[in-house]
Design a protein that fits this description.
Mean pLDDT: 90
Strand order of the largest sheet: 1-2-5
Distance between the termini: 65 Å
Order of helices and strands: HEEEEEHE
Number of strands: 6
Shape: elongated
Oligomer: single chain
Length: 126
């Protein structure tokens, strides 16, 4: 009787594990960002840097986004920021490219700049 009970408990544990893994997978897929942003190139001339950002729509629906690019230090503070586009329409499953110019001081470049970070929000929101 004890062996049967252990077998049933083990089977129940396995079923619970399978259910949990499927639920977590579905949850993670649902959390995938509809718009993915990535910095693909930076080109510095003097104190100005041209930042190129790839904007990718991961959904089957057309999206409209406002794209902002910031130059940040290691602690996450913005050294400079610019809105690259206020209303960029990205058709379903496509990519668009956005460019923006940021100007920093020589000291910012040598001592503070960590990286350029893009961010987005849906069109028409705060």
């Amino acid at each position: 009787m004890t062996a049967r009970l252990h077998t049933l408990l083990f089977a129940a544990l396995c079923v619970a594990g399978v259910v949990a893994s499927v639920a977590l997978t579905v949850r993670e897929v649902a959390r995938t960002a509809p718009i993915a942003l990535s910095v693909v190139d930076t080109h510095r001339t003097g104190q100005t840097t041209l930042v190129t950002v790839n904007v990718r729509n991961t959904t089957g629906t057309d999206r409209c986004v406002t794209v902002r690019i910031a130059a940040r230090d290691r602690t996450g503070h913005d050294l400079a920021a610019v809105t690259a586009t206020r209303a960029l329409t990205v058709p379903a499953h496509t990519r668009r490219t956005v460019r923006a110019r940021l100007t920093l001081t020589p000291r910012d470049y040598t001592e503070k700049l960590h990286a350029f970070y893009p961010s987005q929000r849906p069109c028409g929101t705060g």
